Amino acid sequence: MDNVIVSEEAIIAEIARLAGSNPNECYQCSKCAGACPLIPNMDLPPSVIMRLLQVGKVSLVMSSKAIWLCTGCKACSTRCPRAIDLPKIVDCLKMLAVQYGYCSSEQAMFHRTFLNSLRSSGRVYGPNFRRELKLGLPMLLKGKLKILPSKVKNQQQIRHIFATTLQTREDGVHE
Amino acid sequence: MNKYAYFPGCSLHSSAAEYDMSTRRVASKLGLELVEIPDWNCCGAASARSLNQQLDLALNARNLSLASRLQLDILVPCAACYQRLATASLVLQENKQEYEQISLVLGEKLAITSKVKSVLEVFTEEYALNILQREAQKSLSGLKIAAYYGCLLTRSPKNGFDNPEDPVSMDKLIVRIGGEALPWPCKTECCGGSLSLTEPATSFNLIERLLNMAKACGADCIVTACPLCQGNLDMYQMQLSKETGKEYDIPILYFTQLMGLVLGLDFKSMGLQRHFIDPTRVLHRVGLT
């Protein structure tokens, strides 16, 4: 979708629609920033993300590291006096950042690997993900890695779900 | 109702098998029958919701529909699976457009009647606590415990079962079986989830802060209700000790394992030998092994 020119305003409207939550509701009290456990590592605090969306700077937000550090822990939305669903907005930002080619984050790669694994068996087990942290062998010894994982029997339905849900191609989950 | 549609989730089939073992055995002691949802699929975790929200909804709708065919409410041990299932259930009930779309994706008119409940919620209902107290063969007396709920369990959508800022269900359970539930400020702090795999430095900051705080509050162990929290806090302590030069050796247990020990189930059948930080010494000191 790299060649499609879409205005920043149109993307923000799309985010508000998908998230069912409107960044314009935010009055910048910054409770979200105070609640966020990842704030020391964020290049954009959640309150600033809201402000940037209000003034149409979605490309800045989509290229930030912050959206990929968000774990969706909901500390922000639990405390938001305007009941804005920030984690859902951030999820939509992640999805569109990948679609519009803004993102090359490790976290996005991880999610792709995870979904490809889910697609192929309907369930996801650890071995693919623990290798780099030298935990593979210790986990194996503790019986924490399953060598022959069980699969969903109705594979056809899982494939059908992946094939028919929107954005399947753009989010990088391929056959 | 004493019969549930059980959704173990992927972690409980692999890295967190001890949460599965202890949940099943304690359920049986509490007179609850668990029927594993036939052919359940992964909830999509953080990955589906981050890259494709319709996929997230469809994956969870399939599980909700499979459970509803059993005409049973759903019992979920993993806090992450619980959050995805509970969120999807709410969206499908409240948003007609999403409901229609997902029904099309799954090729069936979805009938979602099952409620989504967490194991912590069901195991701390009054009748369960009464049975626990009546059948208790041991007590947690002498054990100082930091009850760690993590972020996803109590910050569920509207249908949450405990206070999202200061949950108390696990604390009450601990006190009920003789333990000391310490006041500590990190009950609902995030452990970093899958950031430990992609942003280890960032994730280690969160883990370190939680472990330091539990230690500073005098905890003998941290008790969790989530396989991600347990894994992150347990598996990285050795690495953290190496990197910081401080000694980290605090056992991270599932609340179901402590319930099992109190009910007279043994160390091995609760899978306690599967943890990286060996809880033997701490449990032995208070007569639980």
Summarize the structure.
The complex is a heterodimer of chains A (175) and B (289). In chain A, 51% of the residues lie in helices and 0% in strands.
Secondary structure: elements and pairs:
The complex is a heterodimer of chains A (175) and B (289).
Chain A: H1 8-19, H2 31-35, H3 46-54, H4 58-62, H5 66-69, H6 75-79, H7 86-99, H8 106-121, H9 127-130, H10 136-141, H11 155-164
Helix pairs in contact in A: 1-7
Chain B: E1 3-6, H1 9-12, H2 17-29, E2 33-36, H3 45-51, H4 53-69, E3 74-76, H5 79-94, H6 96-106, E4 116-118, H7 119-123, H8 126-135, E5 144-148, H9 169-176, E6 180-181, H10 195-198, H11 200-216, E7 221-224, H12 227-235, H13 237-244, E8 252-254, H14 255-262, H15 280-285
Parallel strand pairs in B: 1-2, 1-3, 3-4, 5-6, 5-7, 7-8
Describe this protein's structure:
The complex is a heterodimer of chains A (175) and B (289). Helices cover 51% and strands 0% of the residues of chain A. Chain A has 175 residues and is an all-alpha fold. In chain A, α1 (8-19) packs across α7. Chain A is globular. Chain A starts with 7 loop residues before the first helix and ends in an 11-residue tail after the last helix. The mean pLDDT of chain A is 86. With 289 residues, chain B is α/β, with parallel strands linked by helices. Chain B has 15 helices and eight strands. Chain B has helices spanning 9-12, 17-29, 45-51, 53-69, 79-94, 96-106, 119-123, 126-135, 169-176, 195-198, 200-216, 227-235, 237-244, 255-262, 280-285; strands spanning 3-6, 33-36, 74-76, 116-118, 144-148, 180-181, 221-224, 252-254. In chain B, the strands form two sheets. Chain B has a four-stranded parallel β-sheet, sandwiched between helices. A four-stranded parallel β-sheet of chain B has the order 6-5-7-8, sandwiched between helices. In chain B, α5 (79-94) packs across α6. Chain B is globular and about 55 Å long. The mean pLDDT of chain B is 95. Chains A and B meet through α6, α7, α8 and α11 of A and α3, α4, α6, α10 and α11 of B.
